[in-house]
Amino acid sequence: MNRRRFLAAAGAGASLPLAGCAAVLPGSAEDDYDVGMTAQAFTPYEVTVSVGETVVWENTSTRAHSVTAYGDRIPEGADYFATGGYDSEAAAREAWDGSDGAITAGQRFSHTFEVPGDYTYFCIPHEQAGMVGVVRVEE
Q: Could you tell me the pTM of the whole model?
């Protein structure tokens, strides 16, 4: 079963007692992303997927963010990923000016993970505030 469809179904059932509430719950039928972004955090902090699956990040805040892999904290042989399409952490950091590589409110970024292991990533402007996340990719 597709992970997003499972989460949507599970979230829809869990949200029934909250019918009428205005908040959209992560994993509910109304969202179609795996990781959201608050002012200074990725939610959830960690997500687990299988090899070949795509993770979708959505900027659910009003601040500009980036999704930038730590080059030395992804598995050997894995493709590097960063908003803006940069091929290295150094290139992403150097280009950051608040618009290059930024995703703004409601925008999305996705990456397909082909190599098992842990991928640690961060938001360039909010790294010092602890905006870091992990994608765990399993066989």
A: 0.79
| Enclosing domain of residue 108 | 33-138
pLDDT in tens, the chain (139 residues): 445 444 444 443 433 333 333 333 344 435 689 999 999 999 999 999 999 999 999 999 999 999 999 999 999 999 999 999 999 999 999 999 988 899 999 999 999 999 999 999 999 999 999 999 999 999 9
Q: Cβ(131)–Cβ(40) under 8 Å? A: yes
> Is residue 125 included in any domain, yes or no?
yes
The verdict on residue 2 lying in a domain is: no
SS3 129: helix
Residue 40 lies in a domain: yes
